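Per-record layout

source: Linum tenue
name: Non-haem dioxygenase N-terminal domain-containing protein
length: 157
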Amino acid sequence: MVEIDPSFIQETEHRPSSKSPPQEENHGASDQIPVIDLSSDTESLVTQIGDACEKWGFFQVVNHGVPLELLDKMKRVGKQFFDLPMEEKKRVKRDEVYPMGYYDSEHTKNVRDWKEVFDFLVVDPSFVPATEVPEDPELRTLTNQWPQTPADFRYFS
């Protein structure tokens, strides 16, 4: 039998019930994942996204304009990266100096999540406030770090 790292195990009171909650406890959510059509008007989008986040915590987006070929390439290259050995992925692990890159240590309710992520910026470099003080004019420069493999991980054109 495989032993599970205790950092992945939630306390009993935080584990989901195996029973479906009554409809009113589910805030009236249907059994279908919300689909958000980005061609809708802005007011409708705001309402739909707010409802989906409140009731589900996620949603599917349609009519976003991203070509299917690009999505397929992103999925293929992403899978190649996440299938790499851990030591390869950790070469681009994010930290205080490099907040963009690979990460596998997120926690929910003090329990490690069963996920891996790779954060990157669309605009590279990006400039963000250096502190949380609104009057502070200092900016922090954030840049992407990219893995060596797969070679086309950073190129999606």
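summary: The longest strand covers residues 126-129. The mean pLDDT is 87.
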